[in-house]
Design a protein that fits this description.
about 240 residues; mainly beta; flat
Length: about 240
């Protein structure tokens, strides 16, 4: 369903999806048949608002799924490495990801100014992650499980301005990201958070018709936090010219 007005437009949609998986595990002792099927109604939406001819805001929403694989579903332990045993989980559910994208673009061609903003937010329900069990003899057993609380946020902001004293343009901006994940260790949730921000500046000069000079400077600040393994927490900064 789509509607178009003078200043804005929007569209709403719905898709039907069915996915089925059939497999067979040949163990040499007793074969195991694996079968899973999923049926979904996945919505999507789009909204566009035009403030002026050169300024526009856009929002998109979509949902998609990711089904577990045969190797993740099969219940037979893989003991090819006796110190790192892997086992599937026949009770796994599918992942469902919701994504929202926001965009703003503002351009003033008469004054050579522009502003661009981009944000992307994802939330995954029933995310398939590893659950590890460590035993006193040094053996690690890994099994996939479903969990909620997984998020991913990325964005970018860029502002461009005229620089008459440089006979060119000057830009300043930054990218940012936030990721929240989760794993399990001996039944306890290990919440993992990653932060990143990368400021940047750029100058472009045209002193003559045949000469163009461009200079840029940027950096990236990263943080990682582990709730069950604080010794693995990190923080570092990267810079480039």
């Amino acid at each position: 369903m789509r509607t178009q007005k003078k200043k804005f437009s929007y569209a709403l949609g719905l898709s039907w999806q069915r996915a089925s998986l059939d497999g067979k595990v040949l163990s040499g002792i007793k074969d195991t048949v694996i079968g899973k099927s999923f049926t979904n109604l996945l919505p999507n939406a789009n909204f566009v608002y035009s403030f002026t001819r050169y300024k526009r805001f856009t929002m998109n929403y979509m949902a998609n799924t990711n089904q577990p694989t045969v190797s993740q579903l099969q219940p037979i332990p893989d003991i090819s490495n006796p110190l790192a045993i892997r086992e599937g989980n026949p009770d796994l559910d599918q992942e469902v990801t919701h994504r929202v994208q926001l965009n703003y673009s503002g351009i003033n061609p008469f004054r050579n100014r522009n502003l661009f903003v981009f944000l992307n937010l994802m939330r995954t329900d029933n995310k398939i992650v590893n659950s590890d069990s460590l035993f006193s003899n040094g053996v690690r057993k890994t099994r996939p499980v479903n969990t909620d609380g997984v998020y991913n946020l990325t964005g970018d902001i860029n502002l461009g301005l005229p620089a008459r004293f440089l006979k060119g343009t000057f830009e300043v901006g930054t990218n940012l990201s936030y990721m929240q994940g989760r794993q399990f260790m001996n039944g306890d949730a290990n919440n993992i958070k990653n932060y990143s921000i990368g400021p940047r500046v750029r100058a472009e000069m045209n002193p003559t018709e045949k000469l163009n000079i461009s200079l840029s400077l940027g950096g990236n600040i990263n943080f990682a936090r582990y709730s069950l393994q604080p010794d693995f927490n990190t923080r570092f900064f990267l810079a480039g010219l």
